[in-house]
Amino acid sequence: MRKRTPAAILAAILCSGLLAACGSSDEGSGGASGGGEGGDKTLKIGYAAALSGVLAPYDTPFHNALKVALDEKNAAGGLAGYKVELTVKDAKSEIPVAAQVSQELVDSGIDVLITPCDADPSVAAGQAAQTAKIPAISGCAGSAQLPGAVGDFMFQNVFAVNSQVVPLAQYAYEDKGYKTAALLYSPDTRYTNDGPVQFGQVFEKLGGKIATKQSYKFGSQDFGAQITKIKGARPDVIMTSAYGADLTTFLKQLRGAGVDAPVLGTDGADAPSLLTGAKDAAEGMVFTTHGMPVDEEPKVKEFAALYKEKTGKDPESAFVYAGPDLVATLEAAVEKAGSLDGQKLRDALDSLSGVQGTTGEITYEGMNRSPLKAVTLVEVKDGKFGFLDQRIPDRELIPPPIKGE
User: Fold this and answer.
1) What share of residues in the chain are helix, strand, coil (percent, to 5)?
2) Most buried residue, 22, 169, 233, 343, by CB count within 10 Å?
3) At what angle do helices 190-206 and 161-170 cross, to 10 degrees?
4) Cβ(182)–Cβ(237) below 8 Å
5) 3-state class of 377 per DSSP?
6) What's the pLDDT tens digit per position in 8-24?
7) Number of Cα atoms under 13 Å in the Cβ half of residue 310
8) Which tens digits make up the pLDDT trace of 201-212?
9) Three-class SS of residue 91?
10) Average of pLDDT values for 60-77?
């Protein structure tokens, strides 16, 4: 998901002793020579990770979980018979750096490239893999525009925003009976623009009406003008894909202005900053995410325990569960391809169906390289994140990606 702005979220989180694979060898044989047919039986993965800067709260939990999941695979004999070698370079949440380090990783001979948890740096990073014809997959970017913006070797690991807004809109219209909605969007990023726009498309298809659409600048400090118009429209519900400082600022100012309409969001809201920053203003918010360690999601609960055992801390967000999902996806693709050849791996990924991941079944077949996966609905209640429901999006309601630049 997330973005390139100077909005300070947290200090750089760099590779540490815990993440032993960081800084592993950059040497590699690339493509088919990685071991699929008589090679050294090593699957070489490069990760252009935003471990510092504004995207760090998203990439870092995913990165840590990816390392835990890969370590488990290596300890059990490897992934589909291959030892996995992970090389990580910090993209620093900056588009030019993401492009640079991705090219370095591809040049080193990797078989698969993982890109940051945001569409814009992932578009830049994915170009190197597209040219080299090796699969690239974003760890947790949510814009549905991403695969098409790069090319046929670019994939997403988490469900795109056009997919996750389907159960969110159904929850709003069918479950809660909301008939009118206000949309708050920022055209500055694909994610913050497309989420509200596509929620609106689904909401209207179900029978709802859009009361008002309000845009904001990414990194805004004042939402007064937008809130005034939202207040005047008197919507039943407000939907936004804002996250981080933008989301907490908006919620505090919205409640401060006396607007009590419920707020809905997407997976960018799934961060500790929502609770610590917005506090009481976040109460009642419902958002979509990737999983929760509850009895209703036993595999998520199991991995959460493993993550705590290996890292010494509870999962920071649901982006942790995207790590083992990616490992499951790669294993299924390698097994199906029977090779590390870039084209064969790409084709195998694109045709996967019903892969059992930590968050549920994962399907790429017929999804334009963006997976169909179960969506978890979370409600902020009594200052905590609480499980609300888990739903698989209705394919018939998923709107097509918005055409970007």
Assistant:
1) 40, 20, 40
2) 169
3) 40
4) yes
5) strand
6) 333 333 233 333 333 33
7) 21
8) 999 999 999 999
9) coil
10) 97
Q: Which residue has the tokens 């990439």?
A: 59
* List of residues 6+ apart from 17 with CB closer than 8 A: none
The secondary structure of residue 398, as a DSSP letter, is P
Q: What is the DSSP string of 144-193?
A: TTHHHHH-TTEEESS--HHHHHHHHHHIIIIIS---EEEEEE-TTSHHHH
For residue 342, how many C-alpha atoms fall within 13 Å in the half-sphere facing its CB?
A: 23
Distance CA 324, CA 254 (A): 37
Q: What is the mean pLDDT of the chain?
A: 90
Q: Can you tell me which residue has the tokens 């004999």?
A: 77
Read off the tokens for 106: 């591809």
- Cβ proximity of 369 and 350 under 8 Å: yes
Q: What integer is the mean pLDDT of 156-160?
A: 96
Q: At what angle do helices 190-206 and 119-132 cross, to 10 degrees?
A: 100
How does pLDDT run across 100-113, given as a tens digit for each residue? 999 999 999 999 99
Q: How far apart are CA 150 and CA 173, in angstroms?
A: 34
**pTM for the whole structure:** 0.85
The set of residues, in sequence order, having a beta carbon less than 8 Å from that of 271 and lying 6+ positions away, is: 57, 58, 243, 244, 316, 317
pLDDT above 80 (res 40):
no
Taking phi first (over 0 means left), then psi (-120 to 50 degrees means alpha), and beta for anything else, what does residue 312 get? left
What digits encode the pLDDT tens for the residues 264-276? 999 989 988 899 9
pLDDT of 51 higher than 80: yes
* CA nearest to 269, candidates 321, 317, 326, 201: 317
pLDDT of residue 251: 98
CA separation for the pair 54, 50 (Å, rounded):
8
Question: Which residue, among 311, 295, 317, has the nearest Cα to 385 in the 3D structure?
Answer: 317
